[in-house]
């Protein structure tokens, strides 16, 4: 077998492996698009990786891990390790369905992601592991039927 054939097989294998971890489905409704994250890896309380793609959960801010809160920035209060652990617990080994709405200044896809229909941004906020920030977050439908006291407000925005 020639070196070119071996190289071609290696490249095809790398592409297949990468595609298995995340696949994109363009959305004809606008600039956003839907994608599946087959094997998510949680980075912190509001960030995950889908293969080579970094994803920031939309409209929330979770406490920063030590050394990650830049001087002069108002970082979200709370325990960053508890926030990370909660997101890991929510996701487990399940694939995620995500809808990208933007790309942030760090090159991350900003997306609403759900695990079996449960919106992860809403789950992090309602559990007290993140705060609403950077945009509107409507968790009413998720809260209704959850047994949660709907008269109790969600954490307020820290914008």
Mean pLDDT: 76
How many distinct domains? Answer: 1
What would you call the shape?
Answer: globular
The top level CATH class name: Mainly Beta
Oligomer: single chain
Summary tags:
OB fold (Dihydrolipoamide Acetyltransferase, E2P), single chain, alpha+beta, two-stranded antiparallel sheet, 26% helix, disordered C terminus, globular, eight-stranded mixed β-sheet, 4 helices, 159 residues
Q: In a few lines, what is going on in this structure?
A:
The chain is α+β, with helices and mostly antiparallel strands. The protein has four helices and ten strands.
Mind explaining what this structure looks like?
The protein is an alpha+beta fold. It has one domain (21-143): OB fold (Dihydrolipoamide Acetyltransferase, E2P) (Beta Barrel), CATH 2.40.50.90. The protein is 26% helix and 28% strand. The chain contains 4 helices and 10 strands; from the N terminus they run H-E-E-E-E-E-E-H-E-E-E-H-E-H. It has helices at residues 3-21, 80-91, 120-126, 140-143; strands at 22-25, 33-37, 40-44, 47-50, 53-57, 60-61, 96-103, 109-115, 118-119, 131-132. Strands 1, 2, 3, 4, 5, 7, 8 and 9 form an 8-stranded mixed beta sheet that branches. Strand 3 and strand 4 form a beta hairpin. The longest helix is centred in the first third of the chain and has 19 residues, at 3-21. The radius of gyration is 18 Å and the shape is globular. The N and C termini lie far apart (60 Å).
